[in-house]
Amino acid sequence: MQDLIRAHAGLLFAGVATFILMGAGQALFGPVLPVYLRDFALTEAEAGLFVALLWVGCFLGVGIMYVLGARIGPRHALAAMAAGTAVMAASPGWWLTLLGGTLFGLGYGMATAVFNPRVMRAFGARGPSMLSLLNATFGVGAIAAPLAFVGLGSDPAWTFGAVAVALVAIFALAGPAGRVAAAPAGEVRAFRPHWGILAFGALAIGMEASLAGLGPSALIRAGVAETRASELLSAFFVVFLLARVGLIFIAHRVDPFLLYTAAIGSAAVFALGAVFLSPAVFFVAMGASAGVFFPGYYVTASGKMGEDIRVPPTIVAAGLAGAITAPLILAPVSAALGERGFFVLVACILCAISLAAILSLRRMRV
């Protein structure tokens, strides 16, 4: 294992550093929403568009990877994310801020489809565990960013500006990662979309995106102070990170769809806790479940769909379809349902997904 790590040190450095900043950038979308609501005099639906366009950008980035995957490397993704965060730091107006969020999402989608399959392939039988490690580092940035946002006076310009500078620095050092093969050599299995697991992925990632992007606003609506909501989002990502670190030790031993089902089921229980007991406590608890959504989904889908170069972008694109639509639907509907309306909607959706996953366990095993 140590020999593999040494052989792929450039890939690991670039992947870990990029995922940390992906987590930081995404986690900032939630805390900055209340600021934008005030500064740009937005409605809840307009604010939800900011979160949704992040994922629209991701979808476009994945589309680029589907068509040009063999030609796209880490630096292309880093350049797009750096440009997006720089625009958001400048905050020249609401529509240009939306453009910045979309550009960041473009690079985010490209990075997801660049690094995940390369890491899975580079580490062979340990690929699922190393995938969990890579995605766990996302949580480091996601924990730090909301706290940094509060520490910088809840100023989007300073916080997004710091992320932009860090992305430029990684861009300068990311060259070795681009030399890792984008596709396996030799014969691979044919490209076979598996619509069942893609649907499960879309639903799960839609819930993850909604919790991270709309959660702080939902907590504020439920009576939590704005600063406290940012701190709770950091706590959400602390348990998110711990869950992904735990996966490093078990992901190669447990069927991935069983992990997915357990994550969705526990999230449903925690969402009910947020409705009937404490939104703050159980929102944080849902971070542990959300941390398992993507690894469980990605490894299951990879096993079901083969190793064609189009498979990783397709897997990511399905998740992004949910991430785009879920905030657009949940933001206006939950605002009309009262103080805990967001958590009511999330609980209902997660319970339905849990039932479907339990019924599909046998068919989804890989």
Automatic annotation (TrEMBL):
The record's keywords, sorted A to Z, are: Membrane, Transmembrane, Transmembrane helix, Transport
The reply on keyword DNA repair is: no
Look up and give the membrane topology term: Multi-pass membrane protein
Q: Where in the cell is it found?
A: Endomembrane system
Domain of life, per the record? Bacteria
Which ranges does the record mark as transmembrane? Answer: 7-29, 49-69, 101-119, 131-151, 157-174, 195-220, 232-250, 257-276, 282-299, 311-330, 342-361
**For this UniProt entry, what is the primary localization, expressed as one broad class?**
membrane
* Alphabetical list of PANTHER family matching this protein: BYPASS OF STOP CODON PROTEIN 6 (PTHR23514:SF3)
As for family, the record states: Belongs to the major facilitator superfamily.
Q: What is this protein called?
A: Fucose permease
